[in-house]
């Protein structure tokens, strides 16, 4: 089995924006537990800075154009890949992508050997996205995002169902849990339910000591 995956989504929190992201990353770099894989999703504008200073893999929070060209104002995967980005976090509830566009982006990411984590907020969306065969599907109940009630506590049966349904459609795709994840109990429940890992954001971003937060959270 692969190592459990911990995705740290910076979103656009002020504490990890601009040069402040460097201080946050340096604190995380002191984390030593090797039984987990940590992936950072920095703000788009700090991606290059984070890649250069992080010991962890870096995924982009969003991409809407995959190739170089006349695409003013768009976010180009080719350019991000040249910076050292190795994956994409796509279709977050705060940045939804129309399904036809999502289909093209996931296909081209596969072609370029870029990992994909695609978010879903309903079981039907999980099933549709599974047909695209991304590397991961992150199930996040929209109403729990940013709160203190974990999805593993509020809706454990949906995680079980999502794992079951995805296995029927795409055995290469793994499930992650997001929304309200903030403790080792949340992580433990997610793994017991069959998920491969979790997404965390405000709980670690707002913590005074990110390294200590991870050490206390990761079982």
Q: Could you characterize what this model shows?
A:
This protein is an alpha/beta fold and 219 residues long. It contains 10 helices and 8 strands. An 8-stranded parallel β-barrel has the order 1-2-3-4-5-6-7-8, surrounded by 5 helices.
How much of the polypeptide forms β-strand, as a percent range? 15-25%
Task: Report the radius of gyration as a whole number of Å.
Answer: 16 Å
Can you identify the CATH class?
Alpha Beta
Main beta-sheet annotation: 8 strands, parallel, barrel
| CATH domain topology | TIM Barrel
* Number of helices, where a helix is a run of at least 4 consecutive DSSP H or I residues: 10
Shape: globular
Question: What's the order of the H and E elements?
Answer: EHEHEHEHEHEHHEHEHH
Poorly predicted runs are none
Helix vs. strand class:
alpha/beta
CATH architecture: Alpha-Beta Barrel
> What is the helix fraction of residues, given as a range?
25-40%
Q: CATH superfamily name?
A: Aldolase class I
Query: Would you report the number of β strands?
Result: 8
Strand order of the largest sheet: 1-2-3-4-5-6-7-8
Distance between the termini: 17 Å
**Mean pLDDT metric:** 90
Total domains, how many? Answer: 1
For the structure shown, list the relevant keywords:
alpha/beta; 219 residues; TIM Barrel
Short note summarizing the structure:
The protein is α/β, with parallel strands linked by helices.
